Amino acid sequence: MIRYVIRRLLLAIPTLLAMLTMVFVLVRLVPGDAAVSMLGDQASEQALDALRARLGLDQPIHVQYLTFLGDMLRGDFGTSMSSGRSVLSEVWQVLPYTLELTAAAMVIGVLFGLPLGTFAALYRNRWPDYTTRLLSLTGLSFPGFVSGILMLLAFAVWLRWLPVMSSASSDPLTHMRNLALPALNLGLIMTAYITRVTRSSMLNVLGEDFIRTARAKGVRPGPLVMRHALRNALIPIVTVVGLYFGTLIGNSVLTEIVFTRPGLGKLILGALQSRDYTLLQGLMVIFAAFVILVNLLTDLIYAAVDPRVSYAK
Amino acid sequence: MTAMPAPPPARKQSALLATLNRNRLSWVGIGMLAVIFAVAIFAPLLSPHDPLQQNILHRLEPPSAEFWLGTDSYGRDVLSRLFHGARISLTIGFLAVLVAMIVGSTLGVLAGYIGGIFDQVVMGIVDVMLSFPTLLLGLMVAAMLGASLENLIIAIAITETAPFVRVARAPTIAMKRQDFVEAGRALGFSPGRIMGVHILPNILSDIVVVASLWMASAIRTEASLSFIGLGVSPPTPTWGGMIREGFENILSAWWLVVFPSLAILLTVLALNILGDALRDAIDPKLRGEE
Known about the structure:
Largest interface: A-B, 48 and 44 residues
Number of strands of chain B: 0
Order of helices and strands of chain B: HHHHHHHHHHH
Oligomer: heterodimer
Largest sheet of chain A: none
């Protein structure tokens, strides 16, 4: 097991390096002169030179690359050009909001998705299955901002149950009310994904011999589903949910923008509007590193829960 | 000609039709798509008004007999803009997936066939691409390149190339060891001919299914980028852009966001329904069940 963990950790290093290289190349794809596109073509030659020197753009490309790698690996993600604060502190400041939102969405997704998917699998190719499948397909067809806007319209504008803007508040009740709509929006999308995975995973398990044996031994339907089937179906579900993490992040960005909620989404939008390339670059690296980390954890959890995974290879 | 082991029979058209018939929902998807494509093609004929025509006297009017879906803050007809927006969404979705499909499956077949270090390098890059959240990668590329139709296609194509590499590579590796490919090699066919004539046609159906699912994702990404403000620049009507503009008036003019939202949802849903049905049709694990 320990050897497997070490091997998997070592494998993450080239992935991390390749990711950094890609971000580096992407940022240099900017057509024309980065300094000109930041300061505008009215800027004086002196100001442009100063900016180029500050960004290291006057250095040869391989020096720029090595400097970039060194900075990133040391955890120095640069300084935001618009606020003058370090990218890391900008991220730390809003990260709790995004984490709170994604965690709430994950809880909603598991709470609704697991039972729905199981239910659909048990009634395979009958109307409960068709209804559930159509609903989950609809759920994962929604771009995060479209469902968000429709919910905003329904619950905040027409019914007036919940606030339109969901900014932070020190009062816990207001805080929960503010969190409700964004979390529900993201949570329903997650529910759609988890329902689908649970259904197909349960179908695989229900077709196995040990289920037939258990049934023949007279295990009642309730314990059969809960103890025998669902427990075994959980392993692929955990993996796939881990893989959906990237989708969850993307949708959380859109959700935050729709509900004008502080978080990484708003930070990205601000960076785009102010053409803050260092902030964008830093965010990109942090996001991708996060996803790589989650994939790593998913693999390790997979190895820990599934006795069939061999650590030898 | 020299006798040669027959390649596996190409999947029969009738088998596909049979599966589509078994999964009746798939015809709903095909029907919806047919309507959406027809609307996009005939947008200039179907639109009751000019999508760019501003009219100060008819600002923010709710749906009425003259403006079926209401007007926006410039007095432009929402229905006409919706019809023309379909062209942008479908064009970007289709071309982005086409580019991703050609580049991705070429790389996938090459990686699977050649193997070795080339395979490892390609798959390494694919893993990294997959570790970027789709929307954020698209957002980054679009922001770097600047917003235009071509750049959006490039940005979305980049985010969707990796899955095609995976889909093309796995069956290529399996097929490489089969008799008919061995026979071709023994006959001295060039690797290009073996890959292009013998392997590619056999994995094409898998690739097309993935393409229909990823076109759904491409349209979703395009709408999201337009909503964020990285889409085709105004006044060209795009669904995401219409929602972005309508969002400012969400408290007073619901029709500005609801109709383009439904258009996006229905298009993506139709593609997903079709992709799901097709996947059932060609997945050997699912075929023959029931």
